[in-house]
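Please decode residue identities from the backbone states below.
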């Protein structure tokens, strides 16, 4: 398994605000978990562990009320124009989606707030930073998946000061997993938006 402690040299440099520049947007960072249908239930959940769910990073633009999503996938990538799968060998690829709407995504289970950035650090910076994180290795043993990538991402975000309150990456991942399990077992009586300690957040608290 590759190391999650990644060097600073492969990441874009922080861009601080210049004197006299207007106040920049604030962006909130979230760890998001999505169910995978029957793979997130019963014996599949027990056997797959963390990978019973899909994991991603969401960046929320508090000024324009829109999200950007970052994850890795080894799924098919059909191109409707040429009618061909762009990932026939199911290799791991980095994926970026802009202007997504988490509230309308039926598979989204939880969003856990993990940090906040501003002063010129926005979606493009996060995009480049996460792109520099090594993709899961297809032939690795034990098998690697999107959770390995997320673990490395959280270490890197914390290293750069974008998730400085995450004192324990493993505890954060375990807590997110536990809340996803709660959402699967009792969606009507469990929360979908929490902070990094697992405390419930109101939707309006993300709309500064």
């Amino acid at each position: 398994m590759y190391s999650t402690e990644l060097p600073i040299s492969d990441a874009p440099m922080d861009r601080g605000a210049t004197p006299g520049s207007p106040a920049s947007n604030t962006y909130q960072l979230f760890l998001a978990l999505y169910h995978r249908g029957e793979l997130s239930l019963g014996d599949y959940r027990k056997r797959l562990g963390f990978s019973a769910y899909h994991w991603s990073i969401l960046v929320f633009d508090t000024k324009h009320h829109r999200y950007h999503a970052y994850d890795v996938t080894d799924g098919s990538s059909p191109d409707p124009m040429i009618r061909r799968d762009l990932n026939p060998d199911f290799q791991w690829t980095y994926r970026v989606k802009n202007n997504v709407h988490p509230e309308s995504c039926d598979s989204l289970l939880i969003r856990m707030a993990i940090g906040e950035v501003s002063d010129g650090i926005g979606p493009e910076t996060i995009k480049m930073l996460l792109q520099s994180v090594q993709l899961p290795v297809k032939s690795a043993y034990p098998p690697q998946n999107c959770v390995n990538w997320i673990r490395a991402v959280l270490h890197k975000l914390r290293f750069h000061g974008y998730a400085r309150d995450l004192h324990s990456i493993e505890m954060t991942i375990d807590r997110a997993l536990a809340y996803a399990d709660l959402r699967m077992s009792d969606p009507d009586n469990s929360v979908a938006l929490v902070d990094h300690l697992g405390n419930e957040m109101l939707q309006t608290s993300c709309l500064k």
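Observation: The longest strand covers residues 108-117.
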